[in-house]
Amino acid sequence: MKSSDPRPASRLERRKTRTRQALIDAARAFLARQGMAEVSIQELTEAADVGFGSFYNHFGSKDELFQAAIGDVLEEHGQLLDELTAGIEDPAEVFAASVRLTGRLAATHPQIARILTRTGLPYIDSDKGLAPRALRDIRRAMEAGRFRVKNPHVALAGAGGSLLGFLQLWLEHPDLVDENSPDELAEQVLRMFGMGQEEAGAIVRRPLPGG
User: Fold this and answer.
1) Residue 24: count of CB within 10 angstroms of its CB
2) Same structural domain, 81 and 142
3) Looking at the domain assignment, is residue 210 inside a domain?
4) Does 6 score more than 70 pLDDT?
5) If exposure means fewest CB atoms within 10 Å of the residue's CB, which of 38, 39, 45, 76 is most exposed?
6) What is the DSSP string of 119-134?
């Protein structure tokens, strides 16, 4: 019986994968530092330590590379949330934990936080990262009677905008927040979704997974 395992990647394939990831990592660094504006392909390839000519073996344009870098960030963020909230059963608590963890990105994963704030509002309805997971958890919490909202997409927009605003505040004015501020934000969002103050406060006081 033949094995169904895929064949091992060749040396050339591994080198191509490393080159592509190096370009994505360089783009991530530029996104976090200054955004997409006025960054040349030459600067990107130099930062990635790859040849200029190899750029077009992987990406058709600078914009395509930056979109891949944003997708890479969103997927890393989403996987982090999945891993840390996997053991929580209550969808309202899963949602709150995701808000609390994302709110702490400015301290725990500053590059991700800066890229999220720089990419702006399109993050809220992306099919990667927190947005699809948050929408899933909002719907589950609605079905379980935990959230009292009419439109989960409107709820997601409110929560997503609040999170982006909070991350911007922390990054630009860290003196105005403290380590408990993400929990305060999560409590406010839970209450916005119809949860009582006492219950919302109890949820955000629970230990964070991975903490």
Assistant:
1) 22
2) yes
3) no
4) no
5) 38
6) H-GGGGG-SSTHHHHH
